[in-house]
Design goal:
mainly alpha
Length: about 260
């Protein structure tokens, strides 16, 4: 049976460009954070599914192609920039405008201020820092980190709570990058920390690699996690996850009592 024909209009002008960005944001939110698709696959599928339209006049064709290629280049060549905006809970018109302005300026030479410093062209994107429920949750996460030896430093609960409230969390050093990725992935799976924890660790420079010579970034954490999940869990990692699950139950029990 043939499918019913649905007309696809050209995305023309500023409104058409913004529609394409909003559509990309919607697809990204459905596919990338949920691990339905990798960022690379999401980009390819989005580009391939939005190239053509049903308008026949030359102006519509040219305008659509212009906007289509803008978004295609943005998604393909500026993943880090896209993720900073698309990882927000809301992408309004102002945010889209900021994203596009940053994109348009990305190949311009840096401007110097009168005092000789380089201007910062990156706009504030969203307040998407790690948001936890209460002091009790932070307390349990700190205790978990210390129990499974997540960092070379032993974290102090009161100091961590105080720093968290001031948004002054100090940089710590991973004891084992694989263990850290495994624990944070488990906490994210249970919605205790945000799904974009890898981006937050990179952006805020929260964690030094176990070698101590570089800050962990999204690529480090994602590749480490992918490698772990491609192999059977070791007895040691099973034990770590068992400890994590125990703390998850304590956190969830507390949440349920507060509802």
């Amino acid at each position: 049976m043939m499918r019913g024909f649905q007309r696809t209009p050209a995305h023309t002008g500023k409104e058409g460009l913004f529609r394409l960005v909003r559509l990309a944001y919607s697809r990204y939110s459905e596919e990338v954070p949920t691990r339905l698709k990798s960022y690379h696959r999401f980009t390819l599928d989005f580009i391939n599914s939005n190239q053509y339209h049903d308008d026949t006049d030359a102006w519509s064709k040219n305008e659509h192609q212009k906007n289509y290629r803008i978004v295609a280049e943005l998604l393909t060549n500026h993943e880090k920039m896209v993720r900073r905006y698309f990882d927000c809970d809301l992408l309004n018109e102002q945010a889209i405008n900021n994203l596009l302005n940053e994109f348009y300026a990305s190949d311009l030479p840096e401007l110097m201020t009168p005092d000789g410093s380089v201007t910062d062209t990156i706009n504030a994107v969203c307040d998407n820092t790690i948001t936890l429920y209460d002091d009790h949750t932070i307390d349990l996460i700190v205790r978990l980190a210390n129990e499974v030896n997540l960092f070379t430093e032993v974290l102090d609960v009161n100091e961590t709570i105080r720093r968290y409230k001031r948004r002054e969390l100090r940089t710590v050093t991973s004891s084992n990058n694989s263990r850290l990725a495994l624990v944070f992935d488990r906490l994210s799976f249970h919605n205790i920390i945000p799904y974009n924890w890898q981006s937050l660790i990179e952006r805020e420079k929260y964690v030094l690699s176990s070698t101590g010579n570089k800050y962990l970034n999204k690529h480090d954490l994602a590749s480490t996690l992918h490698r772990i999940k491609d192999m059977p869990l070791s007895p040691q990692n099973k034990k770590v996850l068992s400890v994590v699950d125990g703390y998850v139950r304590l956190i969830k029990d507390r949440e349920n009592k507060q509802e």
